[in-house]
Request: fold
Amino acid sequence: MIHIDRYAYRSKLKKTDPMQKLFFAVLTLGMCLWADSNVISAAVLVLMGGITVFRGGTSLYFLMKLLAIPMSFLLVGVLTVAVKISEDPGIMLVSLPMAGVWVGISQQGLRDAGRLFLKALGSVTCLYYLSLSTPLVDMLSAFKRIGVPKLMVEMMGLVYRFIFVLFETAETIFNSQNSRLGYASLNSGYRSLGGLASTLFIRAYRRSDELYTALEARGYDGELNVLEEPYQRHWAGYFAPLAVNIILIVITLFLRQYEGGRLG
Amino acid sequence: MNETILEVKDLHYIYADGTHALKGINLKIPRGKTTAVLGGNGAGKSTLFMNFNGILKPTSGQVIFDGKAVDYSHKGLKELRRAVGLVFQDPDSQLFSASVYQDVSFGPMNLRLPEQEVRRRVELGLERTGILDLKDKPTHCLSFGQKKRAAIAGVLAMEPEVLVLDEPTGGLDPMGVSGVMKLLKETQEQLGISVVMSTHDIDIVPLYCDYVYVMDRGNVCIEGTPKQVFSQPDALRRVHLRLPRVAHLMEILQREDAFDFCDTAATISQARKALKSVSRGWSF
Reply:
């Protein structure tokens, strides 16, 4: 999962203004949650997935694999929605009597579960669109522009940068312990793991000290001022996401009217 | 103009834990030249370098930049750090941003330069270090050598007058070493900056350096041009250093095999010349 970032760097949408991408993803996500309709959720899934694959150049196979990750959580979660407890077995499709009540799956429950499932999948696709087209560095610059406190953005940037250094260090220590049979038995494994954790902590502390010194040498005065590379920026970039979402909202309203009329 | 850009007078430095790292250092960094600081591990090179740009404040003694004693006020330090750029040994502790471009822009941004000027310097720094094509890459995907170059670019972009490098060739492969040394030499020729570097790689010293200081346990024990320093092999060995390989070979030829060289040779081309002039006297 740590390599999801590499796909973002390879995306053809990387050069696009991150603000536009953030706007598109968040707007569509919000719309998908608001609409709460199967048709719209499916449309968002296809739309955002399609843009990621065709405009961004991410392979469909990889996107499917990523979508399979939340699937297990989703299925378990959805199952609990589908299963209902009721005193009236008449509303159930399948049910079991249990301590005087009926536990089973009703048609309404099944419908709710299906809708929740699609809604969640559609929303996740919105986020995948963002993370597969926008490296974190670009995301941070967008955060800065929408007014997230500077300190927080800087912290996120440093955490992100040093996660990789930390991983590398941990891997080196682990390999050196492993090659000296540090994990040969359960007992020595625990001992080695403890050593790894404490060494890692000390290294991280020293690393932060060195970083501060190095920053100071380049004139650090409390703020990590950097210049971003210029992005391709265009007003039309905001127009297209807005138009797409307005169309989807209109469809939602139309569907509600239609369904409301039919049910009423 | 002053011949000496940076001078250190009777510099002592004692760490908080009581380690007496520098014990009365006196040295002069010549303007526009490359100066090497040699010395075994723990000789005090890194401590000395951090005194050069005010990261560490001397316990006693003076650091003199361009004829003026360093002013340790906030403003004075800022000015000093613009003029004396320090590149650290481990690029992973210097590169703080996940974007190479942003990292290189950090120094010039702190100089409060206009955006256009910062962009120009960043591009130039990346170009000089030969990593312009990596500017879109995330830092954690670079190789060690590329990180090292990125770290140098970040300091070069501040356009310092003195470039101080702690082990610029440490951990690099042979091609990487000559690549970094060539780029330093080229940059120096173009900008006329002074370079100070510490190294364990003795063989590159006669090739790229104009002046040498040898440190041992917090003192300067030998100084001079590479020629002068490498003509004192015994003194070098006492402080756990050695001659360049070529100079060592020449020394053995002279001592064991009765070759008669009129001059010490420390590089391949010097040795070649010396050997040719000797062989001319031979009859086949």
User: Anything to note?
Assistant: The first helix of chain B runs from residue 45 to 52.
